[in-house]
Amino acid sequence: MTSSSKPIIIVGAGMAGLACATWLHRAGRPVLILDAADAVGGRVRTDTTPDGFRLDRGFQVLLTNYPEARRIFDYGALQLKSFRSGAVIRLANGHETTLQNPLQRPLSAFSALTSPIGSLPDKLRIVSLVRHVLKHTPEALLARPATNTLTFLQRYGWSEQMINTFFKPFFGGVFLDRELSTASNFFEFVFQQFVTGEAAVPALGMQQLPEQLASRLPANSVQLNTPVAAVEGTRVRLKSGQVLDGAAVVVATDGLTALRLLAGRSGNADDGCMVQATGFPTAARLTTCTYFAADGNSPGRGDKLLRLNATPGALAHNVSFPADVSAAYAPSGRSLISVSTHGERSLTEAELTAGLRDELAAWFGPAARQWEHVRSYRIPAALPVYLPGQPVRQSLKLADGLYRCGDWAAYPSLNAALATGREVAEMLLA
Ligand SMILES: Cc1cc2nc3c(=O)[nH]c(=O)nc-3n(C[C@H](O)[C@H](O)[C@H](O)COP(=O)(O)OP(=O)(O)OC[C@H]3O[C@@H](n4cnc5c(N)ncnc54)[C@H](O)[C@@H]3O)c2cc1C
User: Is residue 99 part of a domain?
Assistant: First the structure.
């Protein structure tokens, strides 16, 4: 095989690897994607149970204004279904308050007479932040100097009450980081995305996103159940022992796996140090998603609003009712309840489920004790940790013919995975 007829080998069929393959294929370059898993999508997967529930592996949404998502997806074919903008917030005293369009129409949402969240200056500060993010492009916000998000909010002047009852439950759920230690440039970007777009899921579940990209690639260009053991220059050694030679190699796995695959690439210690020095962030945020099923009407009342828990120390951080948003998530006559718990609790699945039942019964009434536990997903490396000072883009070219992409090479978002995949494709095409 001449080097131009050899495919570009992409290790990993998550959103980054698939985006890279999509842009290369559109430009006429042969690609071969290798993935260890039994389906495409990486962290974006949906399981269907024998009863007909669709379970996304962790609560996850597409923000429809993500620039990279708009570039690459056919939204019409995905039949996107949107959550209503806003949230129902359970306060520490057990009362609930509903905020509709809090970022898109801040004054009307927060200034409802009954809203116990935020003082008048707090509400005006939301308006001011909305104006600020609308003045910038997404890229400009990501490039801004950063502190951690909590410090950013405090410096902006928001009261502790506003931070604890709105920002921590809402953005702590987005970052899987209740303490808001995540870098503020990413907060500004995400805030803008909520102001300008919607939070949506494809009608048939989140896995439709990677499936749409994979379906546009030539048959046989995606090999599943094919774990890669090492990457050495433009050669890939499979776990089976087979060695494949590519025109170039793109490592599109998670950060820890990439470090492991690349560490031995020349077999000497210096090279290992070089890999470390090039920056491979591998720390990650943990989340657990517990699904319950109920008969009859949805406990979410069909309002398509996310439930957020502002109670300190609670296990149930956010609750959603996916079938209220897209009916295909549950069989007819049944409803699905998705409950997310962020961070490490050192509980077994049975202990967590029992603890959640107690909290959900206090929140949604005693019927919650009868909800059927469908499945739990514990996802130790759901999002890469992204702290102040981390570059918004790590170097994506590692050596001639050797590249990397993925959210861990940028910031924790689908947008980053898709963007780094495209950027590597553009480097290869240049
Ligand atoms: C619960 C949860 C909620 C989230 N919520 C949101 C959200 O609301 N909005 C948002 O924008 N983002 C969200 N994200 C983040 C988003 O899913 C990720 O940023 C994105 O999917 C990362 O894609 P990736 O391609 O970089 O990595 P991955 O999806 O991790 O893909 C890596 C791929 O590499 C493969 N692989 C690993 N090792 C090997 C090997 N040795 N050989 C071959 N293949 C290998 C894996 O099987 C996988 O397919 C969430 C993530 C999770 C888990």
Answer: no
How many domains would you assign to the chain? Answer: 3
Model pTM above 0.85 = yes
The b/e string for 343-379 (b: 16+ C-beta within 10 A; e otherwise) is eeeeeeeeebbebbbebbeebbeeebeebeebebbeb
176/32 Cα distance (integer angstroms): 33
- pLDDT tens, 291-309? 999 998 899 989 999 999 9
Residue nearest to atom 37 of ligand 1 (CA): 253
- Distance from Cα 77 to the centre of ligand 1, integer Å: 22
CA of 94 to the centre of ligand 1 (A): 35
Tell the residue nearest (CA) to atom 4 of ligand 1.
Answer: 60
| CATH number of the domain enclosing 212 | 3.50.50.60
Residue 393 lies in a domain: yes
Q: Determine the Cα–Cα distance for residues 87 and 89; give it in Å rounded to an integer.
A: 6
Angstrom distance (rounded) from CA 103 to CA 132? 12
Task: Give the structural domain span for 142.
Answer: 105-194
Q: How far apart are CA 196 and CA 66, in angstroms?
A: 9
Do residues 197 and 63 make contact, with C-beta atoms less than 8 angstroms apart? yes
Q: How many CA atoms lie within 13 A of 25 on its CB side?
A: 22
Q: In angstroms, what is the span from residue 47 Cα to ligand 1's centroid?
A: 15
Q: Considering only 99-103, 146-150, 167-171, which range has the smallest mean pLDDT?
A: 99-103
pLDDT single digits (tens) 39-58: 999 999 999 999 999 999 99
Distance 16 CA to ligand 1 centre (A): 8
Q: Which atom of ligand 1 is nearest to the CA of 34?
A: 43
What are the pocket residues of ligand 1 if the criterion is a CB atom closer than 6 Å to any ligand atom? 11-17, 34-37, 42-44, 58, 60-61, 227-228, 252-254, 257, 287, 379, 382-383, 406-407, 412-415, 417
Distance of alpha carbon 322 from alpha carbon 54, whole angstroms: 9
